[in-house]
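**Folding the chain**
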Amino acid sequence: MLTLYYCPGACSTASHIAIEETGTSYQAFLVALAKGEQKSETYLAINPRGRVPALKLDDGSVITENTAILAYLARRFAAKNLLPTDIGEEARCIATMAWFSNTVHPSFTHINRPERFADDTNTHPAIRETGRKNFWTNLQEIDRLLVGRPWLQGSQFTVCDAYAMVFCGWGHRIQLPMRELANYAGWKDRMIERPAVRRVLEREDSALLQVTA
């Protein structure tokens, strides 16, 4: 059986949604980041980088990083159509997830983890402010990607959508004006209507379930 290591509200929500969408049986193992459990010897044996998500496969091997986990789940459970079947569209979906991982996520990290980018605490306010501006710019781009389409890849729900839910939650968490992003807001409502997404948000006690705008 697959085992997903996650933390509520972290970027692992993307993989949590994706594995729930597959309909497969799996174990969900909560790693409490706030308590430092990701630094324990037990978890470092799973993921030496001390991050979530991590996915333990049936043979005991482990996949880390959202982009890889999402692609793996989509391909393993191909009947669920979580990736486009056209090779070009599949590549564009993976490219979007890579952008999420290497640009959108780090812009948020500058806001809540400035110490990762500078030892001098005097620079931290500027790092946070720059991160906030960049993160908002990235959310606006996600909003534009949704113009005239129900899902990020068009008419088909994909693992890209599972990943984008992470940033929607983070935007609300730091009280950005998310209601200004009308396409993203409408997409969020469609996401919450999906049974698998709602189950994950309920399990993670997500504040998105209380967001009305």
